[in-house]
Specification:
Protein name: tRNA 5-carboxymethoxyuridine methyltransferase
Domain Methyltransferase type: 49-145
Number of domains: 1
Strand content: 15-25%
Enzyme class: transferase
Catalytic activity: 5-carboxymethoxyuridine(34) in tRNA + S-adenosyl-L-methionine = 5-methoxycarbonylmethoxyuridine(34) in tRNA + S-adenosyl-L-homocysteine
Helix content: 25-40%
Number of strands: 7
Strand order of the largest sheet: 3-2-1-4-5-7-6
Family: Belongs to the class I-like SAM-binding methyltransferase superfamily. CmoM family.
CATH superfamily: Vaccinia Virus protein VP39
Order of helices and strands: HHEHEHEEHEHHHEHHE
């Protein structure tokens, strides 16, 4: 198995993910979470790593707030798009771009970072646990990681709603190799265990798209978007909805050891 490179599907990715109602919900929910998460970090311009940052939507927003953001991606085309977006939004002075896999970014960092964004990347990797370990090593003590991953429970629920019983019984295998559906949906308990084994302290969990993808009438995605978004934001941090999100956003902090005080 190899890590997924989106050079060949960058335009499709942009059109089908970022330019849709599901992308708008994702950005809104993550934006709320990050706003609260950053209150737990030093109140100064932060050093932020956007690992596998794609076109840089979130990175540009953070750079616009005055933070220093380094974005890396395996895809050279995604790096090009992120650079163009930074120039267009006037935030390129606060950003750096590195064309490399997320798990190799330590070679390009001058110092540990305060915050790592790792959004919708880990489910495309051949060795997700090792990548997560490599990234948490790049955090300062007291720093945080914002990790969003594709939830196997949400995938199962979606197929059951559609009546795809046989596909669920077969373990929901990926049907099309060229699909934008991730290669390796993750079990939430496994991801939480990985973080805990790395010594990280989980501080929050949010379901991303806890209702949107389950609506049978897709016209409601656009027609009733404002009401849908309000309900997503109302329930996304409550169980059982967290565990049924198509993605789960988990936030965790690296502890400060006594000899580091």
């Amino acid at each position: 198995m190899q890590d997924r490179n989106f050079d060949d599907m960058a335009e499709k990715f942009s059109r089908n993910i970022y330019g849709t109602t599901k992308g708008r919900i994702r950005q809104a929910v993550l934006g709320q979470d990050l706003q609260e998460l950053m209150k737990t970090l030093p109140q100064r311009p932060l050093r932020i790593l956007d690992a596998g940052g794609g076109e840089g939507q979130m990175a540009c927003e953070l750079a616009a707030l005055g933070h220093q953001v380094l974005l890396c991606d395996l895809s050279g085309e995604m790096i090009r798009r992120a650079q163009a977006a930074a120039i267009e939004k006037g935030v390129s002075d606060n950003m750096q771009f590195v064309h490399c896999p997320a798990q190799h970014i330590a070679e390009h960092l001058e110092a540990p970072v305060d915050l790592i964004l790792f959004h919708a990347v880990i489910e495309w990797l051949a060795e997700p646990q090792q990548a997560l370990a490599a990234l948490t090593d790049c955090l300062v003590p007291g720093g945080a990681i914002s990790l969003m991953f594709y939830n196997i429970h949400g995938l199962v629920m979606r197929h059951m709603i559609l009546g795809n019983f046989g596909h669920v019984e077969a373990g929901v295998p990926k049907i099309k190799k060229s699909s934008l559906l991730p290669d390796h949906p993750l079990e939430p308990a496994q991801v939480y265990q990985w973080l805990e084994e790395l010594g990280m302290q989980i501080s929050g969990k949010t379901g991303v798209r806890v209702f949107h993808d389950y609506l049978r009438n897709r016209q409601q995605h656009k027609q009733d978007f404002d009401e849908l978004l309000a309900l997503e934001q109302r329930y996304c941090r409550q169980e059982p909805f967290v565990s049924l999100g198509r993605y789960i956003h988990v936030m965790a902090h690296k502890p400060i050891l006594k000899d580091e005080l």
